[in-house]
Amino acid sequence: MTVIRIGGIELTQDEARDLYDSGRRYLISYNTITEMTYDAKTDCFGGKVICRKPKGQKLGFTRRGRFYSFTKEEIDGFLKGVLR
């Protein structure tokens, strides 16, 4: 099994595929929100940073070592609440 890193999160290729196929393409970790990308030609997953924790903010988006996956609609609601 191949382990890949997307936004500092380690996933297997199968885990990444399952999240991507189910529409849960946004990964939230302690410091960053990352959008998963997929290249069909090379069958590789990657990521694009959407948002970083603001400097001076003491608390992260999640607890350290944890991550959550969201759909487009869920991440929009989350960002509206965080970036007021």
Q: How are the secondary structure elements laid out?
A:
Layout: E1 3-6, E2 9-12, H1 13-21, E3 26-28, E4 32-39, E5 44-52, E6 68-70, H2 72-82
Antiparallel strand pairs: 1-2, 3-4, 3-6, 4-5
List keywords for this structure.
single chain; about 80 residues
The number of distinct helices, counting runs of at least 4 residues, comes to: 2
Label the overall shape. Answer: globular
Please trace the helix and strand order, writing H or E for each element: EEHEEEEH
How many domain regions? 1
For the biggest β-sheet, the strand order reads 5-4-3-6
Number of strands: 6
The averaged pLDDT comes out at 88
Whole-Å distance between the termini?
41 Å
Largest sheet: 4 strands, antiparallel
Helicity, as a percent range: 10-25%
Proportion in β-strands:
35-45%
**Which residues sit in consecutive blocks of at least 5 with pLDDT less than 50?**
none
| Classification by helices and strands | alpha+beta
The gyration radius over C-alpha positions equals 13 Å
Q: Would you write up a description of this structure?
A:
The chain is an alpha+beta fold and 84 residues long. It is built from 2 helices and 6 strands. Strand 3 (26-28) and strand 4 form a beta hairpin. It is globular and about 40 Å long. It starts with a strand and ends with a helix. The model has no long low-confidence stretch (mean pLDDT 88).
